[in-house]
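Hey,
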Amino acid sequence: MISHIVMLKLKDKAQAEEIKTRLEALPAQIPEIKSYEVGIDEINSPRSFDLALYSQFESYDTLKIYNEHSAHVEVLGFIREHAETVYAVDYTV
């Protein structure tokens, strides 16, 4: 199992809810997603990111399918417009 974690620092935190909504629509469109959780930061500390995604996939092959899926690519375009910083980590569980 592969865990895929992404953290976003947004140019304007007001976009967090829209990004969350768009991300949460992806599991219905991409069957390779095994687990998917999106959260908006509630503490707002100086070290906080604004939004985090935690997802799981069977393999790096299915993660690649997700990454290249047209619905995901569309959401990424929206995220890139509004993100100041994006960090990701992928690891085997």
